[in-house]
Design a protein that fits this description.
Strand content: 25-35%
Shape: rod-shaped
Number of helices: 8
Low-confidence stretches: 85-90
Oligomer: single chain
Distance between the termini: 99 Å
CATH topology of the largest domain: Nuclear Transport Factor 2, Chain: A
Structural class: alpha+beta
Order of helices and strands: HHHHHHHEEHEEEEE
Length: 267
């Protein structure tokens, strides 16, 4: 069995179109015993394509090529064998494939899936559904965050502090008896030495109330508990509703839709 080099049908079509006039095509079809009127199409180029497809179906492409070489020996007919065999039909002939190959399509699909995954992840993150201490609504969420501060205090847990406070949260303590004010401009500067030197017990925030306005909120609370610092025991009980004792919390939603404490004032 003879194996022929795959034929580039596009190249064969172009050479026929360049070197054979319409009447010459008629004569060629007559020599090949092909009824010219049976070729489909209304233009000379359409007739050429129909002729090639006819010879392809009949397994006679090599015969057609030999005849063309006899008719036009000066034409480089051997160049029709130079294209790689992207897909083969009768006698290994090929029409050119679209430029976007299967591997490229998989790459495009993979990139599209990656983009879609990124968009879905961003929507989920910004929706706040993945936030810590998420409640049924914003109001309940904020109450849980404020209560989490007392949980962190009782356990000396800095990881909770970093979850509920903004990294640049402002913290202010007013000492009514001494008439002094102490300020911190990030939560870790406040809580790290506090947890290292003081042990709290039963710390809790009481009567937590406030208002939520869009992405911002302001809440107040009372507080009570006991502590041991430098070997000395102490207790505190501050009433909500008393400006000289109550705690004031300011919160906002960050880029990811999670509520965080941006300002905390206490006595």
């Amino acid at each position: 069995m003879v194996h022929h080099t795959p034929i580039n049908l596009s190249r064969l079509r172009d050479l026929l179109d360049e070197h054979f006039a319409l009447d010459e095509l008629r004569s060629l079809c007559l020599d090949l015993d092909i009824p010219f009127e049976n070729l489909s199409g209304s233009t000379r180029r359409d007739k050429i394509i129909s002729l090639i497809e006819n010879r392809q179906r009949q397994g006679q492409l090599e015969t057609l090529l030999s005849r063309l070489q006899e008719e036009r020996p000066q034409v480089a007919w051997d160049t029709v064998h130079h294209a790689p065999a992207e897909s083969t039909g009768t006698e290994g002939a090929t029409w050119p494939k679209p430029k976007l190959m299967l591997a490229s399509r998989y790459k495009v699909m993979g990139l599209a899936m990656l983009i879609l995954f990124g968009i879905v992840s961003l929507v989920l993150l910004r929706s706040g559904c993945l936030c810590t201490y998420k409640g049924e609504d914003d109001y309940e969420t904020i109450i849980r965050i404020i209560k989490a501060e007392s949980l962190a205090v009782n356990n000396g847990d800095l990881s909770i502090i970093t979850k509920i406070f903004a990294a640049d949260a402002y913290i202010k303590q007013t000492d009514n008896r001494a008439g002094s004010v102490t300020e911190w401009f990030d939560p870790l500067t406040r809580y790290r030495p506090l947890f290292a030197n003081t042990q709290f017990s039963g710390a809790q925030h009481t009567q937590i109330t406030g208002t939520v306005n869009g992405n911002f909120a302001r809440f107040t609370s009372g507080s009570q508990g006991s502590f041991v610092a430098d070997g000395e025991y102490g207790e505190y009980d501050h009433a909500a509703g008393n400006p000289q004792e109550e705690e004031v919390w300011t919160l906002k939603q960050n880029f990811w839709g999670c509520w965080e404490i941006t300002r905390f004032e206490f006595h």
